[in-house]
Amino acid sequence: MTPEEFVIGACLLTPDSVRFASSILDPSDFRSTTHAHLFRAIVQLQQAGEPVEPLSVWTKAEELGARGIGVVELHEMLQRVGSAESISYYADQVKESASRRRLVHIATNLLREAGDETQHPSQAAQAASEAIKNIQAGTSHRMTTKSLEEILAVQEDHDWLIPGLLERGDRLILTGFEGGGKTTWIRQMIICMAAGIHPTTMNHLDKPLRVLVVDAENTEAQWRSQVRGMTANAAKYGTTDPAPLIHIHAKGRIDITKDATLGEIHRLVDEHQPDVLAIGPLYKMVSTGINNDQEAAPLIMALDSLRDRGVALIMEGHASKGNSQNATRDLAPRGSAALMGWPEFGFGLHPDPTNESMTIVTKWRGDREAGRQWPKELWRGGYFPWTGETVAPNVRQGMNTGQPVRF
């Protein structure tokens, strides 16, 4: 008796076992098309509250397209099972066999597409990677638990890129009003990181970070004119010249939800191995608007596929139009509410109406982890365009004299 036949027989013997099998298996997991139709019939009958027994399953399966099996064979499967207690074991075997078949199919496609000179190899690699992730997601069906004792026994483990501020996989969205300085602050942060400078305290990092920029709005000419002085200052004050560690794609609007475009960005990640990916603005990375959760979902999925590569994401968004006095409402990213709950950190730059030289850093979502060293205020001027209250006075003095303060 094959594992597929055991699963069908066990469901017929004990209809309560259908919920165990269906939590593990999908009809597409069955090698036999007939068995797939039978299992689909069983699940549909159980969901409809109808009897799950040989005659009803055979009738339903025939409606679904099953051929070459009769009620007698179903009775034989039922009688040969004996007990349904092992259904999870046999369902796991069916799932494992299905996963192996899918892996063979992926490998076959990858070999064929790798020889196709009309597409870049990274596209084939990305398609294979996504297909393998789907297999992994499908095989992680079992919900498990750990005792609180086990959880507390594990020491806190951060994969820090910048201790106390940013770790691999973090997602930051920065919004603000037009001309409020958000693009400048993002550029300042990534240039400091690449120069070995902590972007909010200005202390030296243990090592500089590699940064990839995908700019869907600004041109290379704008980068040249706007960061030349900042880059020179960072090279002078930091531990290294940041320019060689920052790679920029600045060719205008893109559609990251298209496989070809997303595949190219993954190729750039492969090529440059960045620690940080600065990408945006969000509304210029899709061909449509981001007005609801349905429109936001493909964008979020694409960005998360990049995040899964082990990079921290720094993204620029645009605030909603409206009264600038209401920072919390107006600074949330324009469009879908899904964008508000997605990142680890969401900040907006809000001008201080009482001080033209100061900008307030407003949180439009609560941090997922408290205690990070993000500033609450930014002042214009100084060694870099923006200086936060997180920079100690002696560090600020050291920057102005070109003499870094070490701790």
Notes on the protein architecture:
Residues 324-329 have low confidence and may be disordered. This protein has 407 residues and is an alpha/beta fold. The protein has a 9-stranded mixed sheet, with helices on both faces. The chain has 15 helices and 11 strands. Helix 12 (293-307) links the parallel strand 6 (276-280) and strand 7 (312-316). Helix 1 (3-13) packs parallel to helix 3, helix 3 (33-47) packs across helix 4 (54-64) and helix 6 (87-114) runs antiparallel to helix 7 (121-139). The chain has 2 domains: 1-144, Orthogonal Bundle (DNAb Helicase, Chain A), CATH 1.10.860.10; 160-401, 3-Layer(aba) Sandwich (Rossmann fold), CATH 3.40.50.
